[in-house]
Amino acid sequence: MNAATAQPDTWRPSRGKVGMACLIFMESLFFSGFIIAYLFYIGKSAVGPWPRDVLELKPVLVNSVALLSSSFTVVAAVRALERGRMEAMKFWLLATIGLGAWFLWGTWSEWRGLIEDKGLTIATNLFGTTFYSLVGFHAFHVFAGLLALGTILLLGVLGRLKPRRDTIRFELISWYWHFVDVVWIFVFTTVYIVGMRP
Amino acid sequence: MSTLHAPSHTAAGTSLLERLHGWAITVDHKRLGIMYVVAALLFFVVGGLEAAAMRLQLIKPMNDFLTPQGFNQMFTMHGTTMVFLVGMPMLAGFGNFLVPLMIGARDMAFPRLNAFGFWLFLLGGLLLYFSWIGGDGLYGAGGAPDVGWFAYSPLTSKTFSRGNSTDYWILGIMVSGFGSLSAAINFVTTILCMRCPGMTLMRMPLMVWMMLVVGFLVLVALPVLTAAQVMLLLDRSLGAHFFDPQQAGSALLWQHLFWFFGHPEVYILILPGFGFVSEIVPVFSRKVIFGYTLMVAATVGIGFISLGVWAHHMFVVGLPPWLNALFAASTFLISVPTGIKIFNWIATMWGGRIRFDTPMLYCTGFLGMFVIGGLTGIMLAAVPFTTQLSDSYFVVGHFHYVLFGGLVFAILGAVTYWFPKATGRMMDEGLGRWSFWLILLGFNLVFLPMHFSGMLGMPRRIYTYQPDRGWEMWNLVTTAGVPVQMLGVAVFVWNMIRSSLKGPVAGDDPWDAWTLEWATSSPPPEHNFDRIPTCTSARPLWDRKHPDDPDCHYE
């Protein structure tokens, strides 16, 4: 009866890819809220300190280079897993985690300087409120990404990774890592470029 | 309740504890769907009792049934409950139960995430209600949240909201919001990736289309609310200044962020209702849905436009006139795709052999009531009109015609329509009619007079009023409608319980319908379909029943 109709379409996108795309989409809306709040409150603090007095661009630039280059190392790690070269995979993954940890350490030392030397906390003024929440949530996402990457590294060290089965999974985690990097570009532009203008 | 809670083929020979355990650990989309709906119905009764308490307080001027603070808690909990703990889980429940069956899949894309989402929603709901016990906090002040469901700043600041009640509001909604987000990811992924062979996007049942758009809207809108709630939480617990006017923080920012979520939320709630009606009306009119393509286009159109109308909730805030005009225009615009849908449903009924069974009665009621709510919505889209009537009972009447007359009627119709699929038994037709007419009468008694008391100047959220304002009669009628409505709901719930035990056995396809959920047994087996079906047109079951004249010849 229905044989007359042409072959039914059977191609469907991968569940993992669509699911991760949805997660990234919704996370970017979450960050939009904080970026909008930051832009809305630029220059509106009732009292100092002001961004140009306390923020230092140079160390942040170095950290940004570290974080952004980790996007390349993670791609190298995924490619290595795809080709079954486990030692190279572990090397590039460790490099990625190292670069991400470097970034977190940079944030930590920046915050320590701000809090202890410059006296800027989340309760000081609107700048502190928006700065710590936006940068902090980004750092929290870097931390979550590091946990995911660390899990993969652990599985790799234990020899539990199978290239054919797990490449797609690793690739999805790497999507998330790229997302964290891209968010940083927006955060950096907002906080350290737009927010620093006189 | 045993039939409701355990399909007969698994119930035999297991103890109650084992069966409950089975429900607690399940990742089956059908069981999760039923649990969502049952939990939502329980919260519906609680939220309804809160509304009844408010109406009792307002039955006459200068009444003292509730304290002012108690009244504030009632309208806050009523609104929050109905939106987040009734509307959202009801839709997640129906979506869960129906989407995989309708697209010929064995389960949702991520079954464990699905179960996780349900339990998050329940935890969020319990957190919110725990505020009645724990909200006092260390100050000994508080109780349930009393800041309104949209929790305007600076009412929510530490200064004006002492104790922990507002924190419970934030956390409860945030946690159940995580549940909604995981459900949304699941819906979008399931619909895009799990359709059976042959089911192209333009052959999906309209209900599935609505859930796809709803999933997208949830992913856009809810994270923004979560961000705003995180900001509020930082304000309250770490001394941040997002919404603190004393430190140049802006109360307006909260309103923008909240309503950027809040208005799409209205469409998140009503779109699945549109989906129910779009499934039920054709089956009971014995006709194909009129203008399927246009319905899909209108749904997608509503999805996009709904992201750009939020400031019509803020017409009296003092935004610049050009901005008000812009949002008024976009609000008028969104009534166009909504109107298209109304005309399509009427055109579907037109000339059909209509069977007025209970589901169809509810859908017909939906059409009438929703049109009234839509028309008052268009009135309120006009800035000068809102300037006059903002925050009055007119607005309360308007959105209850949309959400009760629209959404709840559609949900009750949907419960009656899919009850046989979920339980294997029919709901009683006589009791169904009684509940419909009682709810229709009670609903109009309650909410129609609100338009008049509102136009006479009665503001929302007042706990009492002076005797000489001309509002007495309207308030009396409004409250008089409450017992009628409660009786109708009671009959409905009784019908559900009784029918799940004693209703006549339904069979696979009691309504002679055309979508795939009716192609499997009632209740469906855990794996849904013994063989994954193949879809040949937008009405796959019609094609199977009428091999001589299948729909695919006309597509």
Report on the architecture of this protein.
The complex is a heterodimer of chains A (198) and B (555). Chain A has helices at 15-40, 51-54, 57-82, 86-117, 126-157, 163-194. Chain A has 198 residues and is mainly alpha-helical. Chain A has one domain (30-36, 56-194): Four Helix Bundle (Hemerythrin (Met), subunit A). Chain A is elongated. Residues 1-5 of chain A have low confidence and may be disordered. The radius of gyration of chain B is 23 Å and the shape is globular. In chain B, helix 8 (206-238) runs antiparallel to helix 9 and helix 9 (251-285) packs parallel to helix 11 (321-349). Chain B has helices at residues 2-5, 8-11, 16-24, 29-57, 68-102, 111-134, 165-193, 206-238, 251-285, 292-305, 321-349, 358-381, 383-389, 393-423, 429-455, 472-502, 540-545. Chain B has 17 helices and no strands. Chain B is an all-alpha fold and 555 residues long. In chain B, 67% of the residues lie in helices and 0% in strands. Classes of the chains: A mainly alpha (198), B mainly alpha (555).
What is the topological layout?
The complex is a heterodimer of chains A (198) and B (555).
Chain A: H1 15-40, H2 51-54, H3 57-82, H4 86-117, H5 126-157, H6 163-194
Helix pairs in contact in A: 1-5, 1-6, 3-4, 3-6, 4-5, 5-6
Chain B: H1 2-5, H2 8-11, H3 16-24, H4 29-57, H5 68-102, H6 111-134, H7 165-193, H8 206-238, H9 251-285, H10 292-305, H11 321-349, H12 358-381, H13 383-389, H14 393-423, H15 429-455, H16 472-502, H17 540-545
Helix pairs in contact in B: 4-5, 4-6, 4-16, 5-6, 5-7, 5-9, 6-7, 7-8, 8-9, 8-10, 9-11, 9-12, 9-14, 10-11, 11-12, 12-14, 12-15, 14-15, 15-16
